[in-house]
């Protein structure tokens, strides 16, 4: 069967930069960091986070549904509704058996687990909520979206740490190319900013400790970076084969042209020092798209703001792409969204090639001397309109996506 082009026909975003695609894009292009001191982390050694502003689940979803969903699923349902509407689709108009859901998530619902553990300690096992497991299990991210939209095709959650959202999109791409689905809702969602999880990251030394300057804490590629800032949010993308989108008169926003994945097989948290695993994933994505590195105009870097990861990734980008593409890390604004990060950054890559604009890298005041890249410090034109989005996670799991103008 000839391979079909797969296009993005709908986008939905819930990010620390804003709720909705336009609010998120405006916030990210403004270069205004979302980081702030977080009252829920008051007892933690690191109290900085990037929260979704003004997220009122009861207002957005209705009180009954909101109470039955953990925050990570609430984000995804809001983003999913926006994406499906943006694609011009309705569940009443599709064959649900041909609609799949593939979402990425690193942790599930730790907020629910921590709250119910307190109930267990204070009141006893008989007072634990019957919704504990349905709310916190990672698979419920896809399960709830499938129920929300009557999607009875393949439904799954990918858990590859901070590469989860990107890998979910890659798997969705394969489902469409192989004819297993006609529409796939794909992306990622995460709500890991909880006291226990953040205490764990702090103990690992992974978080920025710039607590006297929270907004300046996430500073990808900057010489004074000292760790990442935790964030939360979701992205859902509607994917279809180009011929199906064209037949129903849909507007393709971009082409999802290639996907690559790899494992470092090196260390539980540290990347391969030479970046060989990430490089394999990026080259595989380029091969899948049938293009060379010199044809890429923009790289949305994983760019976590950690000393080691940024330097390793920068060397990979230089080896694969030379000095051609304009590089950015939107984590300077949003912080690190963990399993949602790759999906959010893929959606931002769609917007970049669709609108011809590369967002800035916030807080980049002095480029790390060992990083030899063209890093965007302000919104800049992208030419050619082809982007690569990199993702990497604990366990050495890597993913890369190629997005091109439709």
From TrEMBL:
Supply the EC number(s).
2.3.1.179
Query: What CDD domains does this protein's entry cite?
Result: KAS_I_II (cd00834)
The record, for PROSITE patterns, names:
KS3_1, KS3_2
Q: Which UniProt keywords apply?
A: Acyltransferase, Transferase
Q: SMART domains under this entry?
A: PKS_KS
Any Pfam family matching the protein: ketoacyl-synt
Q: Does the keyword Acyltransferase apply?
A: yes
User: Which portions of this protein are annotated as coiled-coil regions?
Assistant: none
Describe the family membership recorded for this protein in Swiss-Prot or TrEMBL. Belongs to the thiolase-like superfamily. Beta-ketoacyl-ACP synthases family.
Please identify the protein, giving its name as recorded: 3-oxoacyl-[acyl-carrier-protein] synthase II
Organism, as annotated = Streptomyces olivoverticillatus
């Amino acid at each position: 069967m000839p391979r079909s082009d797969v296009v993005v026909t709908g986008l939905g975003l819930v990010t620390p930069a804003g709720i909705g695609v336009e609010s998120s894009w405006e916030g990210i292009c403004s270069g205004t960091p979302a980081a702030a001191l977080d009252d829920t982390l008051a007892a933690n050694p690191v109290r900085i986070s990037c929260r979704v502003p003004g997220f009122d689940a009861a207002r957005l979803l209705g009180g009954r549904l909101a109470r039955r969903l953990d925050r990570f699923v609430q984000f995804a349902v809001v983003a999913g509704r926006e994406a499906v509407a943006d694609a011009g689709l309705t569940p009443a108009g599709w064959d649900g058996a041909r609609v799949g859901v593939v979402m990425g998530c690193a942790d599930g619902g730790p907020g629910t687990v921590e709250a119910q553990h307190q109930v267990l300690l204070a009141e006893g096992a008989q007072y634990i909520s019957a919704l504990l497991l349905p709310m916190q299990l990672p698979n419920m991210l896809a399960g709830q979206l499938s129920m929300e939209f009557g999607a009875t095709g393949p439904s799954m959650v990918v858990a590859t740490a901070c590469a989860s959202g990107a890998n979910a999109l890659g798997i969705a791409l394969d489902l469409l190319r192989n004819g297993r689905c006609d529409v796939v809702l794909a992306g990622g969602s995460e709500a890991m900013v909880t006291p226990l999880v953040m205490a764990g990251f702090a103990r690992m030394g992974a978080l920025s400790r710039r607590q006297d300057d929270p907004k300046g804490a996430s500073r990808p590629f900057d010489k004074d970076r000292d760790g990442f800032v935790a964030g939360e949010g979701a992205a859902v993308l509607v994917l279809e084969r180009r011929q199906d989108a064209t037949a129903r008169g849909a507007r393709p926003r971009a082409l999802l042209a290639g996907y690559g994945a790899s494992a470092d097989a090196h260390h539980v948290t540290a990347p391969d020092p030479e970046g060989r695993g990430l490089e394999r994933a990026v080259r595989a994505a380029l091969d899948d798209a049938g293009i060379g590195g010199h044809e890429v105009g923009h790289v949305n870097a994983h760019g976590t703001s950690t000393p080691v990861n940024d330097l390793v990734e920068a060397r990979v980008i230089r080896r694969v792409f030379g000095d051609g593409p304009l590089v950015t890390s939107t984590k300077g604004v949003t912080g690190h969204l963990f399993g949602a990060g790759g999906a959010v950054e893929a959606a931002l890559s769609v917007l970049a090639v669709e609108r011809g604009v590369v967002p800035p890298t916030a807080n980049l005041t002095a480029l790390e001397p060992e990083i030899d890249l063209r890093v965007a410090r302000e919104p800049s034109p992208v030419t050619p309109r082809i982007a690569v989005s990199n993702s990497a996670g604990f366990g050495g799991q890597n993913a890369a996506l190629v997005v091109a103008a439709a």
